[in-house]
Write a structure and sequence with these properties.
The chain is globular and about 60 Å long. It has a seven-stranded parallel sheet with strand order 5-4-3-6-11-12-13, sandwiched between helices. α5 crosses α7 and α8 packs across α12. It has a single domain, classed as Rossmann fold (3-Layer(aba) Sandwich), CATH 3.40.50.720. The protein is 41% helix and 16% strand. The structure holds 1,4-dihydronicotinamide adenine dinucleotide. The site of 1,4-dihydronicotinamide adenine dinucleotide has 29 residues, from α2, β4 and β11. 1,4-dihydronicotinamide adenine dinucleotide binds next to α2, β4 and β11.
Length: 401
Amino acid sequence: MIIEPKVRGFICTTAHPTGCRANVANQITYAKEQRKTLSLHSANSPKKALVIGSSTGYGLASRISLAYTYQASTIGVMYEKEAAGVRTATAGWYNTAAFESFAANDGLYAQTINGDAFSREIKDETIAKIKRDLGKVDMVIYSLAAPRRTMADGTVFSSVLKATTDTFVSKSLDLRHNIIEEASIPTATEEEIEATIKVMGGEDWADWITALVEGNAIEENAITVAYSYIGPELTYPIYKEGTIGHAKEHLHKTADLLTKEYANHGIRAYISVNKALVTQASAAIPVVPLYISLLYKVQKELGTHEGCIEQISRMFTDKLLIDKPEIDANGYLRLDDYELDSKVQDKINALWNELTTENITDLADLDGYWEDFYTMFGFDIPGVNYTEEVDASVSIPSINC
Ligand code: NAI
């Protein structure tokens, strides 16, 4: 079939297998380049990694970096859909199919489990695979971004993206029409805050680490990292002080608890505070896409713009896998250092006040926003012929065979 993008608001309901493959290939090229800068027998190199949320965004970049910069064996956990009838697979499905095929050609172990990472069944299945194939893992990346969590008793918690103090009124980007609108983001109820913490807080991360320790599937001195965001004051009401910020605060506390609880085991849990980037998760947050399009504009002009693979590579090589990890006063790895640089934020604040629908294409990098958006689903990638028929049905070796 010929596959075209079908965009509905902040989501694209189709994905292109050849484009997603090209996307993964580009990230692999970058990760291989970074390998040249490493001392190859570094004792810090992870060898067997588990990536939870491995198919898109920061998790995919982590998997690619671990495999292609550090030559690590990787097991990925994701929640994606394969193609069915006229429906294409999700981008994460195609990314993973491509990643596994590249890894197989390059002699790298890569297996994937597709299912609900919150469930006990998927944890057990993952641990059984680790024990069978790798023995134990020495690196666990927690990169889930999920809209809901189903508990063992069937209770469902849904995360919401709301303010928590007052209704937040702000400029926002109407992604359907590329116009500036005024968004009014309501205040969450206590239950909504609690539900968001259940989904995006640290409880499930801790459950994974406990399950791995109890299952004897994690090495002494293993490292685990979960991803977070803080952002500038401009977005505090919707992010840092919003429902999602409460969940991230819980995640941050969980890192300390895990490091303390498993001190005898030598496990170290870190939070990496990453940069705001266009991903399926961030596109859904009100106000954030507009902020991102200004951030791209300013950072590209200053030459400090990075995508997921650049961020994650820098996290591993410059901040984490060095003799003494580079952490801030709170113990966090700061990959949002360039984003929060005052030169960047002062410029954004000035532009924010001037922004209107009429001048948005001049002041903000809307093209850059949409380029990343389409790339995420495998579209608009140079070198891919989108007029060619493609088979939407692509199998993932470790799942379909
Ligand atoms: P994403 O939407 O690109 O990736 C989410 C991943 O989670 C996918 O692999 C998906 O398959 C998996 N997933 C979702 N629900 C699942 C479930 N129930 N079971 C198994 N797998 C599931 O998201 P993104 O943006 O890469 O986010 C990852 C983490 O990075 C999140 O914690 C997010 O808050 C954080 N982060 C994101 C930033 C951004 O601007 N995108 C900035 C800083 C941190």
